[in-house]
Amino acid sequence: MKERLLVLAKAVPEASKKYEELICVAGITDKGEWRRIYPIPWELFWKTSPQNFKKKWWIEYELQDDKPSDHRPESRKVKFETIKPLREATFKEIEDLLKTRIETIEQIEEKGVKKQSLGVIEPKEVFDFLPSDNQHYEKLVNMGKQKDLFGSKAFKLSPPKVKYSYKFKDDIDGRIHETLCEDWEVGELYRKCEDYRKQGKYKDENEVHQKVKEKMLNAIMKNKHVYFIVGSHYRFPTFMIVGVIYPRKTDLLK
Known about the structure:
Layout: E1 2-10, E2 14-16, E3 20-29, E4 34-41, E5 57-63, E6 75-76, E7 78-88, H1 91-99, E8 102-103, H2 105-111, E9 118-121, E10 125-133, H3 137-144, E11 162-169, E12 177-181, H4 184-198, H5 205-221, E13 227-232, E14 239-245
Parallel strand pairs: 4-6, 8-9
Antiparallel strand pairs: 1-3, 1-5, 2-3, 3-4, 5-7, 9-13, 10-11, 11-12, 13-14
Helix pairs in contact: 4-5
């Protein structure tokens, strides 16, 4: 069975003993259903891969089975070799789809993850973008030192030492949330800024955090048209931000 998906989230890569590095991808199908497709191998996102696609793209693929692949109703396993990039969606197209689905984290949590584990929220006030230590960093580094049968590294993943969380309200009268942001863009931005620090372009970790914050808080939030795609963890009923959707400057001119 074929399915088309508007990709709204590409989460930070995870390490897996079976598949090496995996990406969790989520979005809305052409039938209007929330969907999480997993596992997607890291190799698909190499620039040289003909299957390479980005967030805000429509893709097509074949499902292994049209039944949930775990306890979350939106999860499906796909035949990843059938993934085909189609086209980039316009921001208006994306925003029109999201605006009709906006909820608060509380509203999604009340349903329970066995009924809904993906959704979109619109931050009303954003107070901060905070760094914290990656609790799994040392474990992932040690996994990266392991060798396969051919003497190569078992994992090519370079895990971020730091994770970031948004502190925000999605309801003016509601509570303040501090929610982990697992958007791949954040991990890559941190990695790039950390490389600059190692090259002497940034003086210390504080400057690295400031540069990441300037982009993910100051630059993005001033555009107003910002949406957080949230999804629950596989093992725990905890919601994380798995995708940050915002317009480019050119999008606002159209």
